[in-house]
Structure formats: structure tokens, C-alpha cells
Amino acid sequence: MGLGTTRAVALVGLSGHVVEVQAHLAASVPGFVLVGLPDTALSESRDRVRAAVTSSGIAWPQRKVTINLSPAALPKSGTGFDVAIAVALLAGAQVLPAGAADGVVHLGELGLDGRLQPVRGVLPAVAAAVAAGFPDVVVPAADVAEARLVPGARVVGAASLADVARLHGASLEGADESAAPVVVPRPVVPVARPGDLSEVVGQDEARHALEVAAAGGHHLLLVGAPGAGKTMLASRLPGILPDLTESEAVEVTAVHSVAGVFDPGAGLVHRPPYEDPHHTATPAAIVGGGSGLPRPGAASRAHRGVLFLDEAPEFGARVLQTLRQPLEHGELVIHRAGGTARYPARFQLVLAANPCPCGQGVGKGLECTCSSVAQRRYFGRLSGPLLDRVDVQVEVRPVTRVERARAAAPEPSAVVAARVAAAREAAASRLAGTPWRTNGEVPGTWLREQLGPDAGLLADVDRALDRGTLSLRGADRVLRLAWTVADLAGRAAPTRADVGTGLALRTRGYRACARVRGRAPCVRRPRRTPRARGVVARRRTGGPGRGRARRPARRRSGARVAPRGGP
Q: Which of 26, 142, 165, 279 is the Cys-Cys partner for 314 at CB 3.0 to 4.6 Å?
């Protein structure tokens, strides 16, 4: 009887749990049993490990092999346990010295030829191992650069199972000593450089709204006609956001590592990510999904960055409703039959929408050809609870030829980014000692306590509440915007003018939506012709134009019916 142990890491979302891999070899009928709640991919490791061991020049033990993954109640998925299972088996077969691999964490997938294949989620797995007190980690050679990003980790790369066995003191005579490491190209998402705000001509109100949204981490809604510049403005938002802190960079990099879109050669992700999924994306593509434990979607990949939904009403209703949870709590909790996964999802949501299907229902809407029913049905896809969680709502009007000729040289992104960074620093110093980092995360109760004794400061907000323009949640959003405007201006507290600016940023788009929803006419109805007016009048009075034929008079017995048109 032989017993060998080593360590591995099981990822549930971004949370890593150190797993003890135990191998028991008994003098019984040869077999291979894997227990400990493995999924289908992990159960297939029995065949991969057997082939890798024999391909490495090691004789397979003719015993009953039982592999236990402890704790057994923790769901385990993926192929990253292959190396740990093989090392524990070799330790139980006394190929490795006793206790040589007990405190070492092994990560990686095995090929049939014995070479180590790279796996996803190496960064959070190594971070979990170091936090649990296991700094010695063995990973595939292709994952060494990613694993060494974790401070305090002693990482060793290996190209094959034979290299791992020699690392622990095994003497292998027939093994290949010149195995080439496996390099699998990962589907790295290309990072496009954001455009500069100096390319935006005019749009002073929209530029100011973009700056306020960047300074306070607020969500943004842009409503305007096609070609007004909504997509152009949204794509330039990441360029004025400050760099991520070290902790934020590690967190974002871990999400991208689990998603399989991280390039280890570029180091940690220090710039805010930018995700713009297509309107045909499914809920699983946005919030995460997959068989077994779900993988992160676009909302999690946009953590600490920007999630842009162009033509937002074209997205499915289920997709839009799934965003309500991360907008409130900053994380996604995905429940599946195989377990529950938590992914961070604190992003800035930017919605771009046309006012109507034709896109011309702006201003007086004289060029709009959509009916009021079509307008309400189109913009009604953005539900009220979703829009109520969007802080900044603005109308983007097309730039006229006169405005283009009179427009001054626009500010570049570097100048705006400097003001945004200063406003972020002011908010961070005020929020020191709290769990919040930006004004967009702070609850309204805490912000109201910092206002001071001025009772008339929120008079405009109270009147908007009385008119029904704002909800109670909307009033808190206005207060957040007021603090952000004050931070941009360098004031210690917001003034009544700052509150008015926040109210304008909050309600300008709301008024546009109200017109589209039918609360006020957005388009001029076509004039009815005299014939049409006559038909409507006959329908109202019950005349012959009611739309159904008149019944002929019933013929009585013995009565003579006069012909039509007779005397």
C-alpha cells in the first residue's frame, strides 16, 4: 500500500480554494477511481494521466489507484488538476521521494505525450495558493510569466511531467530530457487605443456630461439622432479615466485570466477595460455562462472600466434586466446546478439610443415618420427601473454647420483627464475610511450628512420630487452628481448651482424620454383629409360609414317590397 499527497487549486468564480490531492495505491485488482466531486472534464483526466505517465518512461503501477480531491464537497471543474493527480500518483508509487511534493501546488493540464498544457485562471489560482500559505507553485512553462505577477510566489515552470518528477528528486532513465514546452496561442482581445476628445467638434453639453461621468464613476445615457456622435463620445470615455490602482489591476487581470483573454507578456492590466458587445449578444455572453460553473461575461470583463451598449433598445429585454444587479451591487452572482460563482462587475454603463426607430424624433420631430405607438414601443424596451439607475441622461443634438464654423479648438483628452484625476483624488480623500471610492458608489444618506445646515440647498430637488420628475432614487443620484460637479470645480461642498447642474444632467434625457413615451407630443401628427374626417365622423355617429353592411328589410308574408330607387 502506498499513499501520496500534493496540492492543487479549485476556482469557483474568482475565489480559489486549495485542494489536497491524495493518491492511494492498494494491492487489488488494477483500476483507477477518481472521487471528490469532479466534473466531466476532470473525470477524463484518468485517461490523460495514464497516457502521460507511460509516455514519460514511467511504468504504470499494477494496483488499484484511488484519487481523492479534498474537500470532497467543493465542486471541481477543468483540466488544471492533471499534473497534481499525476504527481500524487507517482508519490504513492514511490517514484518520488516521500513527502517531496506535499507542500507544493501543481497546476496544469497533461497531454498524451506527457507535456504540460497551459490552463486558464493561473493568476487567481496562484494568488489563492500564496494567501493560503503555499508559495511554492509548479506551472506549465507557458504560464510562468502570468504566475510570477503574484507577489510572494516562488514559481517554477516545467515543460513535461518528466521535468516535474526530476524537480522533486526522481531518477528517470528512459524519459525524454529535451521536451519542448507547449505554447498555445490564446484568443487575446486586441486593445484599441481610445480616440482623443480633440476630434469631437461642438457637443459642449455632451462633453461636459462625459467629464462628469468620468470624474464620479456615473452611468451615462446618450439619446440622439443617428450620426450625432454618441458612439464617438462613448469610445473616448476610457481615455479620460485614470489608471487602475495596483489592487484594481490585479483584480481586473484575474478576471481576464479566468476569461482566457489575458496576455501575460503585457503584464498587469493598468488601463480601464472597454467592452462593446453586439446587440445580438445573449444574457450568457453579457453576464457570464457556460456548462457547469459559469465563466465571466462582458459585464465582468468590463470591471473597473466601461460597458458600452450601442443601440441599447435593440438588446433583448432579458439582457437589459440582468444588468440591474451589477449596477446596484457591483458584482454578479450566477447560480447554476453545479454551483454558484461570483464575479466582480463594477463598471460604468454607457447606453446609446435613438429616440425612435427612424432616429429623427429629436427636437420638434418634424422629420420623424414614426407613429406614437412605434415610438413608445421602441424606447419602452429600456425599462424604468433600468433608466432610474443611470445617473447622467443627456440629449446629443446634431452639430449644425454654423456651430461647426464657430466652434473653438476642443480640449484634448489629456487636459480633461487631468481634471478628472484631480476630482477623483478629492473624492478619495473625502471617502477615506469608507468602502467607497467614487461618488457614483456612495449612498445618498451619507452624502446628505455632509451637506451642512443650508436648508434651501435641495429646494430644486424637492420641487422635482413634488412634480414627479424625480424618484427618491433619482434624488440621490442628483446629489451624487452635485458632489462630482463640486469636485471638478475644486469646492469642498456643493452649492445650489452645483445641485442645479446635477439636476439638469439627470433630467435632460428624462424629458427626451418622456416625449418619446407619449407624455408630450414628439412629432406633428399628419393632417386628416376631408374624406378621412367624414369617415371618422360617421363612425362616431353610427352612420352608414360604420364599416359593416346594412341588413336588408325582412320580407313579410303578403307584403310587396318596392325596388331600390322606386317611388
A: 279
pLDDT in tens, 27-37: 889 999 999 98
Give the whole-angstrom CA distance, residue 39 versus residue 294: 13
Q: Report angle CA 76, 81, 83 to the nearest 5 degrees.
A: 175
Strand partners, 34: 67
In the numeric block, which cell numbers belong to residue 467? 412634480
* CB-based contact 209:391 (threshold 8 Å): no
**Which sequence spans correspond to the domains of the chain?**
2-167, 197-440+504-516
The CATH label, of 3.40.50.880, 3.40.720.10, 3.30.230.10, 3.30.360.10, for the domain at 2-167 is 3.30.230.10
Q: Which amino acid is at 198?
A: S
Pairing between strand 109-110 and 116-117? antiparallel
Q: What is the CA radius of gyration of the chain?
A: 33
- Catalogue the long-range contacts made by 128-136 (C-beta closer than 8 Å, 24 or more residues apart): 128/9, 128/11, 128/15, 128/16, 128/17, 128/18, 129/7, 129/9, 129/16, 129/18, 129/105, 129/153, 131/16, 132/18, 134/7, 134/18, 134/103, 134/104, 134/105, 136/103, 136/104, 136/105
Q: CB of 215 within 8 A of CB of 251?
A: no
Share of the chain residues as helix, strand and coil, in percent rounded to the nearest 5: 40, 15, 45
Cα separation of 494 and 483, whole Å?
6
Residue 326 has phi, psi (to 5 degrees) of -65, -30
∠ CA 465-466-469, nearest 5°, is 50
Tell me what the pLDDT averaged over the chain comes to.
84
Report the number of secondary-structure helices (H) and strands (E) in the chain.
Answer: 22, 16
* The CATH number fitting domain 197-440+504-516, selected from 3.40.190.10, 3.30.428.10, 3.90.550.10, 3.40.50.300: 3.40.50.300
Q: DSSP string covering 290-314, please?
A: -SSSPBP-HHHHTTTSEEEETTGGG
DSSP state of 386: H
Q: With 0-12 CB in 10 A as exposed, 13-18 as middle and 19+ as buried, what is 352?
A: buried
Tens of pLDDT, residue by residue over 386-421, are: 988 899 999 888 887 777 777 778 889 999 999 999
pLDDT in tens, 295-343: 899 999 999 999 999 999 999 999 999 998 899 888 988 887 667 888 9
- Decide if pLDDT at 523 tops 60: no
pTM listed for this prediction: 0.81
pLDDT tens digit string along 88-142?
Answer: 999 999 999 988 999 999 999 999 999 999 998 999 999 999 999 999 999 999 8
Q: Residue 86's closest CA among 95, 78, 77?
A: 95
Pairing label, strands 15-26, 64-70: antiparallel
